[in-house]
Amino acid sequence: MAKEKSKKKLGMTTLIFIGLFLGAFTGIILYYFVPAGYMRDTVLVDGVFYVVGQGFLRLMQMLVVPLVFCSLICGSAAIGDTKTLGKVGVKTIVFYLFTTALAISIALAVGTIVKPGLGLDTAAIQTQDVTVAESTTLTETLLNIIPTNPIGALANGTMLQVIVFALFVGIILAKLGERVEVVSNFFAQFNDIMMEMTMMIMAIAPLGVFCLIARTFAGIGFGAFLPLGKYMIAVLIALAVQCLFVYLGLLKLFTGLNPIKFIKNFFPVMAFAFSTATSNATIPLSIDTLAKKMGVSKRISSFTIPLGRSEER
Questions:
Q1: I need a labelling partner for 261 at 20 to 30 A (CA). Which of 29, 50, 76, 119 fits?
Q2: What pLDDT, in 10s, does the model give residues 15-60?
């Protein structure tokens, strides 16, 4: 019994944090104590660490479009009534816009005060070319949400267009009911497949995090610890303000739920999202946690959670 309890305590979140710290430790050891050469640079840093780390990220990116697409179709179809769906959708979008605006304001304020990048030697960090997108008008932005080619939107991962198309499909499935039962069952079963695939891929998350962090520290060493520490502190402060004051304040205001109880039940999801820096893998975990621990209907959560997923690449 004691062994079983110890195994249960060592959950995915714990393993990811272990992988993070071990990766940082390994990277620092490689940077300072292993001489530069073929084995360290080519085989380990740019070989094993790069392939495994980037492979994990690519697997996560592979899930984005089909997972969000199927979840939204199933969620909107489960709500059924178009009036109810419209009310839920409008409230959800307004809430997301409001909290996003607050998050941006908090992030800018914390960044201005802490200045997290000050002192970091960017020459030692590998960078990628960044292209600046041309500015578009509000009317063009609104029109770009509507897909002219839904298949192209799915293929290119244009998430706003995918969301719009998925909502239309879900609403029509709910409207036609038994006449399209076969199609509804297909999307429901495919959604189950994507949820299971997400869990399978997340089983290697600790290894992926280890390789990503190890490769980073093997390239920059301990000298970047202080600037990165400032960055981490800035991120933690911004997240704490957003979580403790904005989200929990709104939670208490609109639902009356105990914030401490909510954090206790939802902490595994929060820690999981923070440690992997991805919202994709948390979709099934969030829906499952809300249903089992918070009593939220899956027909609501499977609609609102994918709708609020950031356009993450």
A1: 76
A2: 888 888 899 899 888 888 888 888 888 888 889 999 999 998 888 8
pLDDT in tens, 152-182: 989 888 888 888 898 889 889 888 888 999 9
Rounded Cα–Cα distance for residues 260 and 60 (Å) = 31
DSSP assignment of 72-130, as one string?
HHHHHHHH--HHHHHHHHHHHHHHHHHHHHHHHHHHHHHHHHH-TTTT--GGGS-----
Average pLDDT along the chain: 80
| Single-letter residue type at 298 | K
Structure letter (DSSP) for residue 38: I
CA distance 165 to 25: 46
Which whole-number Å values give the CA distances from 34 to 20, 30, 221, in the listed order? 20, 5, 12
Amino acid symbol at 285: L
SS3 255: helix
Three-state SS at 143: helix
Which of these ranges, 36-45, 119-128, 214-223, 279-288, has the smallest mean pLDDT? 119-128
Place of tokens 């719009």: 164
80-100 b/e with 16+ CB inside 10 Å = b?
Answer: beeeebeebbeebeeeeeeee
Residue of 81, 68, 71 whose CA lies nearest to 302: 71
Spatial distance between the Cα atoms of 192 and 194, rounded to a whole number of angstroms: 5
Q: What one-character DSSP code corresponds to residue 180?
A: G
